[in-house]
Structures are given as C-alpha cells and as structure tokens.
Amino acid sequence: MPRFLEFFIALIALAVLLPVFLIISLAICLDSRGWPFFRQRRVGKKGKIFWMFKFRKMFSYVPPDGKGITTNHDVRLTRMGRLLERFKLDELPQIINVLLGDIALVGPRPEIERFISYYPEKWEKVLSIRPGLIGYSQIKVPHEGDLYPKNCLDHEQYYIEHILPQKLDNEIEYLEKKSLWLDLSILFQVSLSLLSRTITPRWLMVHLSPLFVLLVDTALSGLSVVISFALVFQLGLPEDFYPIVKEVIFYSLIIRPMFFVLFGLPKYPISSSITSKYVVTILKSCFYSSLMMIMALMFIDKRDLVLSAHLVDAFFLPTLLLIMRFAYISLHDSLLATDSFRSPLRIFSHILILLLNGFLGFLSFWLCHIVRLQELNINNLIPKIGMISLTVFFIRTGLSITIWPPRAKGWGGFCKREIPRIFQTSLIGTGLILISYLILQKPAYSRMSLIADTFLYAGFVWILSLIWCMPLIRLNQLHRTKKTIVLGIGVETELFLSTIDRLNDDHIEIVGIVTDIEWKRFSSIAGYRVIGTVGDLESLFEVHHPHLLIAWEWAKDKDYWPYIKSICQKRGVEYSINPSLNTLLTKEQEDFSPDRDVAV
C-alpha cells in the first residue's frame, strides 16, 4: 500500500476514533491505577528497534520483562484489559506508529526482541518490509490464545515451538502475494473475522449474563403488574383502567431495574445455589421498588391509585423471580442427571420425555372431565375446557422438570422421595390450573374433576418413573445402604447434610444427628432430626445399627471422645473425622498430618 494512502487513512482514523480513545483511557484509569498508555520495544524493518504504543491492559506494577505473550484468561490482565484483549482495542494507539512511519497498515505483526533469535532465516524474509498494524496471519487466527492447550504450563515455549513457525510461514506467504488489493482484502477480512469470532454465543452467555438477568427480571416485573391487576379485577379490567395499567407498567420498567442494580441482584447468576442471602436480596429489591413505585404514582397525583393491585404485585413479583430461578436450576439438574449435555440427540430425547409428561397431564385432565359428564358430548366439552386444557399441558410440561428424571436407586428411595415429590408437583400444578381459571375468567370448573386429575396424573407419572427406575433398582439391589449418624450441629453439619440431599444417593442413609448440647435434643438441622445426645450413643447404636459415625475435628478435643471411640470399637461402627471450618481457617498446614485417627 502506498505510503501517502496509509498516512491519509491513519489520519482520518485517528480523528474519527479520538472520542473512543478518550473513553477507553478514562475507563482504564478508573479500573486500575496507572497511565492508560504504555510503550514497548518492538523489532521493525531490517531489525530496527522502535517503540510501539498500546493501551495498557495489565496492572501498572507488572514487570516489563515478564512473560512476552498474552494468553486466554491471563491473570495479569485487568478487567478492562480483558475486554481490550478480546476485541483487540489495545492495538488502536498503533495508528500513531503508522503516522510516524514505524509500521504500515498491513504487514507482518512486529515481535519483541527475544523471539527474533528463533528461526533466523524466516525472520530475515519477514523483516525485509515494515511490520503492520494488521497481519496476514490474523485472517486465519484472530485469537492466538485459542491455540494453546488447556493444560499448557509453559506458554512461551509452546508459542516458540508451535505457533511462531506457522505464523512466520503465513507472513512469508503474504510477502509472495503482496499487492494493494490483497492489503485491502486483509483489512476487510480481519475486521470481519474479529467480529464473527469474538462475539460468539458462548462469550455473550458468559460475559453478558448480568445484563440477561436484569432484562429477564425487568420483564417479569412488568408481567407481575399485569397479573396482579388481573387477579384484583377478576371479572375483567374496566376500560378506563387500561391507561392506568399501561402507566404502571411504564414506571415498573424504569424504577425496578434501578433497584435491582442498586441491591446487586444482577450480580447473582441464575445458578444452582439459592442461599438465604440471595432470597433476602430478592425480597428487599422487590419491596423497596414497589414502595418507590407507589410513591412515584402518588407524587404525580394519581388519586385513583389501585393500592390492592400494588400490594398483590409486591408479593407476587418475588414469587415470580424465585420461580424463574428454581425453574432454571431444575432444568439444569434435569439435563445434567440424564447426561443430556453430551449430544443434541440426548437433549432432544429429554425434551420428548418432558413433553410426554405434559401430554399425560393433558390426557388425565380430559379423562377426568369426560367422566364427570352425564352425556359424552365432545362438541360441548371443547368450548368449555379448550383453552384451559392447553394451559394444563404447558403447566404440567413446565413442572415436570422438577421431577424428571427420577433418581431413586432402591425401593426405599422411590417410596420416600419420588412418590411424595411427584404428588407434590401434581398438587402444585392443580393450584396453577385454578389460578389459570381465574386469569382466563372461566369460573365454571368441576372441583371433583380437578381432584381426580391430581391423583390420576400423579399415578401416570408414578408408573412412568417406576419404568425408568427399574433398571437402576435391579442394578443396585446388591449394594448395602450405609446407615450414618452425624455428630455435631454446627455449620459443617448443615453443609454436609445439604450436600447429601443434593447427591440423592440411596447408598447413604442419614439416621439422625447426635449433639453434646442437651437443649438441642428435639431440634432439627437441614431437615434431619437430632435423635439424641452423646450419652445416648450406645443406645442409639443398639436401636439403629449404624455402619458409620461422622464427626468433625473439634470433637477430638472433647472429654467424651475416648468414650465415643470405645463405643464405636465395641459395636463395630466405622468413624470418620473431618476437618472443621475453624480448623481449616486457623490451624497451620502441618497440623493436618496423615496419621490422624480415621478409620473408615
């Protein structure tokens, strides 16, 4: 490309991108301390050294003689630096190098001095022309970080042995084909490649998840307003209230996202752990945003404020937000349990089973209503329950992700967990169907048909679940269930029991909890009863015949520990001592010696 054309294009680009330079510089300064620009020694035409300008994407205290390459998830990058590296925006100041004549717009990418000593014959050809802002090799590989193996330990060595030779071969190929049209083609192709290979669905899902959570929560807030007004005005919303509802939705879409951000709700991913703090955050953000909406509507002199609808909305919105998160968790666990992430075919088969559950709900609903008819007249039945039956199908399909797949590995687990869980889900579905009658303004429904539908649908799903679980039950009949008693009532016990519940393994049966605090005798932790104190241990062994006693490290310092050991040895009960949280946080590493008293 002629020098005057390069200078002209670089000058226009610098003028156009000047606001972008200011914004990026301000963002870098706010993200981390230090000057927003930095310069680095690079090798130019015929081995001439020049200073190349870039936006700073690492912390200012990173030594300049450190690792000479940047990799994916490089820990030296700042938050802003990761964004600059991903979109190659850190290279923009090199336009100044183009104006100074150090580099061209298109040409081999300049390297640091330490890499020039490798492959001297290839470098001699590559350095025969000026390096470029955009290189020919970037067409094929816009992100070099994607080429490194996941478990690569020495990135520089891998770069020298595998990436650099191919990169030099690409640049030599460019030298052989060099022309003005090729340079213009490279400019276009690299720009297109950076966009298409940078903004991928996976990248958007990972990096824009807070925005996605905020948008979904905002949409649910508008839906909550509509449902709340529909529930308050069961016989139909008066026409003069439609403008009011639209205005309330408008204020909801403005005010509530502000409070969601204020309380940090988008920072919580839609993950598999809804803690008490998470629930409190949802409740606080919904309560204060509802209060602010009422104040805003009163401030603009809305004397016909429907306070009852706003109160319903204040309680209904957190319910919607929690349902959405629980639905995501249930769907994730359901897909994971059936190994559906392995292939699209597994996902398709899983979806078919969920639709089968919905069809069974649809079928049971129709059967129960047909039985209640004195005369079988489908033409009269369809107008009555046509829309409701479709709603039933979607409700049963959606709720089936909480019960599918069944994970029982024994008859006991199937009777204790799967049967009650299926019936609870069927009952919840009946409640949602009743709410659908109210929303769709169809008050004529048969109570007996709905009750029969609850039990009939549960029966259908019980049969389907039993067919699914039979191979697992037959396979695991020879395995012994290990009865376990847990000693202690601290946070370690609560976390352990919650994990056991999540594993849903029939090979472990928690008999109960034993404590050394007398007044805790009749309490419970994570749904498991405290069945006695340390003094009752021998009697508990006689009654329950456990196979394992789980205790925490602090129990070894108690006076009753020798007594517990002797009881376990006498009754042939294995015991396991696990480090407590306090031990992990306060003890030195050498305290965790392998010769601890653990007999499993």
Task: Give an account of the 3D structure.
The protein is an alpha/beta fold. It has four domains: 3-199, no CATH class; 208-337, no CATH class; 346-474, no CATH class; 482-591, NAD(P)-binding Rossmann-like Domain (Rossmann fold). 58% of the residues lie in helices and 9% in strands. The protein has helices at residues 3-16, 18-31, 79-87, 94-100, 120-126, 155-177, 180-198, 201-207, 209-232, 242-262, 276-299, 307-337, 344-372, 378-399, 411-439, 447-476, 491-503, 537-544, 561-571, 581-586; strands at 37-43, 49-55, 104-106, 132-134, 482-487, 508-515, 524-525, 528-533, 548-552, 574-578. The strands form three sheets. Strands 7-8-6-5-9-10 form a six-stranded mixed β-sheet. A two-stranded antiparallel ribbon has the order 1-2. Strand 1 (37-43) and strand 2 (49-55) form a beta hairpin. Helix 1 runs antiparallel to helix 4 (94-100), helix 9 runs antiparallel to helix 10 (242-262) and helix 11 (276-299) packs antiparallel against helix 12. The model is unreliable at 589-600 (pLDDT under 50).
